[in-house]
């Protein structure tokens, strides 16, 4: 049994945010039908490292468990087929620019008339309303607009994109999962679906901790701090004697006392030195320098061992090469090896881990249109001759 067995999802999205939501739902049993443009498909098929099968590694990993069909939604016949699919769907996911679905007579009100129980997830750069609603945007723009990018990087350096990754897309996809699950739960009571409206920038803004109340209350504008953290110290990255890096996180006075003991400098945690957090914050550079000087005398493993012995939160700054050899990653199965169209492929495993109804990877990203005939034949009762006619007309 899977937690979402019996739930049918239509994934009309492109790239990452909306489709990632569908991917997570599919990992836990939902039947996900990926609707793509004939001939070209989702742009995600060409986003990332190319492979011999014609699709990228990103597609193979992130389109897992989906059935691919092709429909030309610019053609009235393609839209009519989609309407028929919506009648039997539980969830419809789209991330076109606001207004596109309405021009096709497939906005939420149209969908609700077709299927009052359907839940519609709408993902866009700025949401379905507001002065910027019709503007395009991707994760990089969301990071910038929401205030994250200006906080990332060294104080006097160029603001950077954290991790060179599409964080905003993945976060929004996860909020999409939450929204869909909440709507499914509400439907159990009301019998009705609803619309979930998500903006990429809002997902980023929501995880910037106290940045909003700190500005409203005190006018505090947080700036770039490199590896440091605004409210605590030492809470940064430090270079070891063997030219490796570790993260140390002392979030309270007790942790700093334990770190001082591990350093062989327990006096640093005295009340008249750096024991109180306020004293450490006032002497941030000095405290960081003391920790950095100590770390620089030891190898990475030596520092980590001393921190662990003293119950000081610390960890290595791992590269992906480090991760592949890390025993914790191995033990937890955080990376799993799965068959794909290019052979065995290592991809991130399913999250979260459920004890009774766990998710699974049944297959990786499918070939474009691989399931068109089956879906149209089985769900919409089209004959082989009708399907062939649609294909000749380039509707599928």
UniProtKB/TrEMBL annotation:
Its EC number is 2.8.3.22. GO terms for molecular function: CoA-transferase activity. It is an enzyme of class 2 (transferase). Coiled coil: none annotated. The keyword Transferase applies. It comes from the Bacteria. SUPFAM superfamilies: CoA-transferase family III (CaiB/BaiF). The keyword Transferase applies. Pfam families: CoA_transf_3. Keywords: Transferase. This is Succinyl-CoA--L-malate CoA-transferase beta subunit. The gene is smtB_5.
């Amino acid at each position: 049994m899977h937690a979402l067995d019996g739930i049918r999802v239509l994934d009309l999205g492109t790239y990452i945010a909306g489709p990632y939501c569908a991917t997570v739902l599919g990992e836990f049993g939902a039947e996900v039908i990926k609707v793509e443009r004939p001939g070209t498909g989702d742009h995600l098929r060409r986003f990332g490292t190319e492979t011999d099968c014609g699709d990228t590694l990103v597609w193979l990993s992130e389109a897992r468990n989906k059935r691919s069909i092709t429909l030309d939604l610019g053609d009235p016949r393609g839209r009519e087929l989609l309407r028929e699919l919506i009648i039997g769907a539980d969830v419809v996911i789209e991330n076109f620019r606001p207004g596109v679905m309405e021009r096709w007579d497939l906005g939420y009100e149209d969908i609700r008339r077709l299927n009052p129980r359907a839940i519609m997830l709408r993902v866009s750069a700025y949401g379905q309303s507001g002065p910027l609603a019709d503007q395009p945007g991707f994760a990089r723009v969301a990071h910038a607009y929401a205030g994250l990018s200006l906080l990332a990087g060294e104080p006097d350096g160029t603001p950077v994109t954290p991790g060179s990754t599409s964080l905003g897309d993945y976060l929004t996809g996860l909020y999409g999962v939450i929204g869909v699950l909440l709507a499914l739960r509400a439907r159990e009571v009301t019998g009705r679906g609803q619309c979930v409206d998500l903006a990429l920038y809002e997902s980023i803004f929501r995880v910037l901790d106290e940045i909003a109340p700190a500005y409203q209350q005190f006018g505090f504008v947080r700036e770039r701090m490199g590896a440091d953290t605004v409210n605590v110290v030492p809470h940064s990255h430090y270079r070891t004697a063997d030219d490796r890096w570790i993260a140390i996180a002392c979030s309270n006075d007790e942790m700093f006392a334990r770190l001082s003991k591990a350093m062989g400098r327990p006096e640093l945690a005295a009340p008249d030195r750096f024991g109180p957090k306020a004293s450490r914050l006032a002497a941030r550079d000095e405290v960081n320098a003391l920790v950095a000087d100590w770390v620089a005398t030891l190898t990475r493993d030596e520092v980590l061992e001393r921190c662990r012995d003293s119950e000081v939160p610390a960890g290595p700054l791992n590269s992906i090469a480090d991760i592949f050899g890390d025993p914790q990653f191995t033990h937890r199965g955080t990376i799993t090896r799965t068959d794909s169209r290019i052979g065995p492929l290592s991809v991130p495993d399913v999250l979260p881990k459920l004890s009774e109804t766990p998710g699974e990877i049944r297959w990786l990203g499918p070939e474009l249109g691989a399931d068109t005939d089956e879906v149209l034949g089985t769900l919409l009762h089209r004959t082989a001759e009708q399907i062939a006619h649609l294909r000749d007309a380039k509707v599928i």
